[in-house]
Design a protein that fits this description.
Blueprint lengths: L1 E8 L3 H10 L6 E7 L6 E5 L2 E5 L2 E10 L4 H12 L7 E7 L17
Antiparallel strand pairs: 1-5, 1-6, 2-5, 3-4
Helix pairs in contact: 1-2
């Protein structure tokens, strides 16, 4: 099993969600986060003073997937999140040792 963490533009979340549902993803956790990457930030002006906002709002999507679903879900995220511009985001993939469904006590792939 794998833990997929995708950090994407907020405005692309509905596109990513639509692609994930088409790919058969039936569960995800979504958080609104702020972060800084190669995009660097946005320069704004307020009452004549210029300043840089370097922590930009992003959406974090977390999915635990079976190994055989991984490539399909990663492609769905890439397709939905892509604009071709800096700041499109990143996808992180980590191994998952075990999953336990609290309600039934079921473990492993069956609990995903």
């Amino acid at each position: 099993m794998k833990h997929i963490i995708a950090i994407i533009r907020q405005e692309k979340f509905s596109d990513v969600k639509k692609e994930l549902v088409k790919a058969g993803c039936d569960g995800m956790t979504v958080s609104e986060v702020k972060g800084k990457g190669s995009q660097g930030g946005v320069r704004e002006s307020y009452r004549g003073s210029s300043y840089c906002i370097d922590l930009l709002p992003k959406t974090r999507i977390e999915i635990v997937a079976k190994d055989e679903e991984l490539d399909l879900l990663v492609e769905a995220i890439k397709k939905g999140a892509h604009t071709g511009n800096i700041g499109d985001g990143k996808i992180f993939i980590q191994p998952v040792e075990n999953v336990i469904r609290i309600r039934t006590g079921e473990e492993g792939d069956g609990a995903v």
